[in-house]
Amino acid sequence: MGVVGTGILSLPQIVHAHCPLCALAVGAGAMTASYYGMGLSAVGAFVGGLGIVLGMWTNNFVKQKHIPFQGTLIVGVTLGLTVMGLNSIPSQTLYLPFFVAGAPGTLLNKVYWVDKALIGAGLGAIAALAAHALHARIKKAMGKTFFPFQSIVLTLAFITLTAIALQFTLG
């Protein structure tokens, strides 16, 4: 959660409206990916996207701003709490040798073991944020949405493409 949480909290406050249909669709995507036996990284992508979508939706319920970057903080905490559920799944780790410079065991000359589900969750969260940013840009440029349910379609498309890419690269 450290890298993903830090990245989410450092984003400018771009949190706008999101709907329960999008949360339902992304959650159903996670369940479907798991049901059909996709890898943990692909399921993690849907879980990370679900965390972002739920955070944006939760932020809609909070009408008053009490602290700076409150919306971003709500999204980050919701993402963290959603992704924590992945800890109950038996983990599959990915071996990442990182031999750049320095003595063995230093930061730039070490072997890292990273959980595939957390990689997927981080990339799924980025995909959900990118989809929302594209939706907001299209809506601002045109003054309205380009087609009905644009936000849901873009979010599902971005997360699904991320999950498919993760399935073929990490398994």
What labels describe this entry?
171 residues; mainly alpha; two-stranded antiparallel sheet; 6 helices; 2 strands; globular; disordered N terminus
Short description:
The protein contains six helices and two strands, in the order H-H-H-H-E-E-H-H. It has helices spanning 2-9, 20-35, 40-61, 70-83, 116-142, 150-169, and strands at 93-99, 109-115.
Overview of the molecule:
The chain is mainly α and 171 residues long. Helix content is 63%, strand content 8%. Helix 1 (2-9) packs antiparallel against helix 4, helix 2 (20-35) packs antiparallel against helix 3 and helix 5 (116-142) packs antiparallel against helix 6 (150-169). The longest helix has 27 residues, at 116-142. The chain is globular. The protein starts with a helix and ends with a helix. Residues 1-17 have low confidence and may be disordered.
What's the helix count?
Answer: 6
Could you tell me the mean pLDDT? 84
- Please tally the β strands and state the result: 2
Largest beta-sheet characterization: 2 strands, antiparallel
- Helical residue percent band: 55-70%
Rg value: 17 Å
Write the layout of secondary structure elements.
Layout: H1 2-9, H2 20-35, H3 40-61, H4 70-83, E1 93-99, E2 109-115, H5 116-142, H6 150-169
Antiparallel strand pairs: 1-2
